[in-house]
């Protein structure tokens, strides 16, 4: 075999995080990088989730890069096809195609402490990189529950994120498992076509109307001709959501009015008292992500749509048995059961400086420094890392903040010069994590009385950021070298520079 390809930066994933990282690298003058993507095209979760009705619950003009505004969004809340087309457009506009390595799934990444670089094994070959930017995202690997009898179910089974478009649901008895963001979009989309639809609900979600509409040609013309109108629209959407944050993070009692509005919205469509009781949550609104739909409740009111207010416990042939004993016959089962968020599979494929996987380091809960770097993993960072998620605004804002941090991280490596690595100090990671978890204690996500996918197996919220996007932008504006250990390669062996010396070099 010939010499392995070596690059300055290897980006993993080509969703919003990966493409955003690639654009930022080019803007920083770095062209020696690749984007490793396991699929055959870009798009990340917006490529994988192509189920009927799939759309974003964040307004389009906010759910897009600030450096790549789109004046031609078709709707205020655009659907999956439009968002995926936008990402393809970003790849073309910013010249990212030559950097893409499609059909290149990362199987393992190992830190070479002797050469201060990452060894990367992919399904298409091997390469090495000075720095790895992991942008696989938390919504990339579907979670399928272990249901007794599922393997012997004679009908069709698939996850919402792996929709089988070759299977015709028309005239079928369909079971939908889960009531998350995907399910409330799928149910109204397929209800008109199926013979019978049964929704298995463990916990009812809070649902607010989605004020979606087509964006007029005049609006789009105005945004093209007068860019400041587009920026003003984005700024207004951002500002409203920033003002909402304190209710989620400091004063959950203020959400009572929102609960009342949600109940009124429910009552407008659901007239059956028994069904209304099943759909009314018993926890504080906001504890789970507030879902947006104007079609969900009307769909549940249809005569051929049933709600089982209990989780699926067992499958016997074509019969689905709920935990409360309810039996349902089905020809197809669709799982809307979420993703591996707090136990991301990519963590099993990253081996750090101590020879341990990231998953092993995170076995008691994910934690990183400023949502980006983990102790024991030099020159490795993640986009949308621990405690960077949002409950009410656009993740693109958080991604762009992390791209700022990534850019400064690479600048610091350049300033230090030579073959060098930065390793997050465990003390800095622990300090940051303690601060985040202390702030988390009073948030609605921790006090609202629900169990959500924000929480890990230990009940800790390792997913959401307990503050505004503006605060996070400030915290990730630049790298503080005192939070890192500088590792240099001198005379063919790595040498760890003491904290004082490392800081002096970084400031030079």
Any overview of this molecule?
The strands form five sheets. Strands 1, 2, 3, 4, 5, 6, 17 and 18 form an eight-stranded mixed β-sheet that branches. By secondary structure, the protein is of the alpha/beta class. It is 31% helix and 19% strand. Mean pLDDT is 95; it is low at 499-508. The two termini are 42 Å apart. Helix 1 (16-27) crosses helix 11. Strand 8, helix 4 and strand 9 (196-200) form a beta-alpha-beta unit. The protein has two domains: 5-140 and 340-507, FAD/NAD(P)-binding domain (3-Layer(bba) Sandwich), CATH 3.50.50; 150-211 and 238-335, FAD/NAD(P)-binding domain (3-Layer(bba) Sandwich), CATH 3.50.50.
Q: What is the CATH architecture annotation of the largest domain?
A: 3-Layer(bba) Sandwich
- How many strands, what sense, and barrel or not for the largest sheet? 8 strands, mixed
Strand content: 15-25%
Beginning-to-end CA distance, first to last residue? 42 Å
CATH level 1 class label of the largest domain? Alpha Beta
| Unreliable parts | 499-508
The whole-number mean of residue pLDDT values reads 95
Question: Rough shape?
Answer: globular
Number of domains: 2
Classify the fold: give the CATH topology of the largest domain: FAD/NAD(P)-binding domain
Cα-atom radius of gyration: 24 Å
The amount of helix comes to: 25-40%
Give me the number of helical elements.
15
CATH superfamily of the largest domain: FAD/NAD(P)-binding domain
Total beta strands = 21
Category by helix and strand content: alpha/beta
Organism: Streptomyces roseus
GO molecular function, one term: oxidoreductase activity, acting on paired donors, with incorporation or reduction of molecular oxygen, NAD(P)H as one donor, and incorporation of one atom of oxygen
Protein name: Baeyer-Villiger monooxygenase
Keywords: FAD, Flavoprotein, Monooxygenase, NADP, Oxidoreductase
């Amino acid at each position: 075999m010939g010499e392995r390809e070596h690059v300055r930066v290897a980006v993993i994933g080509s969703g919003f995080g990966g493409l955003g990282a690639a654009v930022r690298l080019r803007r920083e003058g770095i062209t020696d990088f690749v984007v490793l993507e396991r699929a055959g095209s870009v798009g990340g979760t917006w490529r994988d989730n192509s189920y009927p009705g799939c759309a974003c619950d964040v307004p389009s003009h906010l759910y897009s890069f600030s450096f790549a505004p789109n004046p031609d969004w078709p709707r205020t809340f655009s659907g999956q096809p439009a968002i995926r087309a936008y990402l393809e457009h970003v790849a073309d506009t910013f010249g990212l195609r030559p950097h893409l390595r499609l059909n290149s799934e990362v199987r393992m990444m190992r830190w070479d402490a002797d050469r201060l670089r990452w060894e990367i094994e992919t399904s298409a070959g091997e390469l090495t990189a000075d720095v790895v930017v992991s942008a696989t995202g938390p919504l990339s690997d579907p979670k399928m529950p272990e249901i007794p009898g599922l393997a012997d179910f004679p009908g069709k089974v698939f996850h919402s994120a792996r929709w089988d478009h070759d299977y015709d649901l028309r005239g079928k008895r369909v079971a939908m498992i889960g009531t998350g963001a995907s399910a409330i979009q799928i149910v109204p989309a397929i209800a008109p076509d199926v013979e019978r639809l049964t929704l298995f609900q463990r916990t009812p979600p809070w649902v607010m109307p989605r004020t979606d509409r087509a964006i007029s040609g005049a609006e789009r013309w105005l945004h093209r001709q007068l860019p400041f109108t587009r920026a003003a629209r984005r700024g207004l959407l951002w500002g409203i959501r920033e003002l909402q944050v304190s209710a989620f993070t400091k004063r959950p009692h203020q959400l009572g009015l929102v609960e009342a509005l949600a109940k009124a919205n429910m009552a407008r469509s659901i007239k059956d008292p028994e069904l209304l009781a099943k759909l009314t949550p018993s926890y504080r609104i906001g504890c789970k992500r507030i879902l947006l739909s104007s079609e969900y409740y009307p769909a549940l009111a249809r005569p051929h749509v049933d709600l089982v207010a209990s989780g699926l416990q067992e499958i016997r042939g074509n019969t689905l048995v709920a935990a409360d004993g309810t039996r349902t016959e089905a020809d197809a089962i669709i799982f809307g059961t979420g993703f591996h968020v707090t136990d991301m599979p990519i963590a099993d494929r990253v081996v750090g400086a101590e020879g341990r996987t990231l998953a092993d380091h995170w076995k008691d809960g994910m934690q990183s420094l400023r949502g980006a770097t983990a102790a024991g993993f030099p020159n490795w960072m993640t986009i949308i890392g621990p405690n960077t998620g949002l409950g009410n605004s656009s993740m693109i804002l958080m991604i762009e903040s992390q791209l700022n941090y990534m850019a400064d991280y690479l600048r610091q490596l350049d300033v230090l010069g030579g073959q060098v690595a930065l390793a997050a100090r465990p003390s800095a990671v622990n300090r940051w994590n303690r601060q985040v978890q202390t702030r988390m204690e009073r948030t609605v996500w921790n006090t609202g009385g629900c169990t959500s996918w924000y929480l890990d197996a230990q009940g800790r919220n390792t997913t959401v950021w307990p503050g505004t996007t503006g605060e996070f932008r400030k915290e990730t504006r630049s790298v503080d070298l005192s939070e890192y250990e500088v590792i240099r390669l001198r005379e063919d062996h790595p040498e760890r520079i003491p904290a004082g010396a490392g800081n002096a070099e970084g400031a030079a």
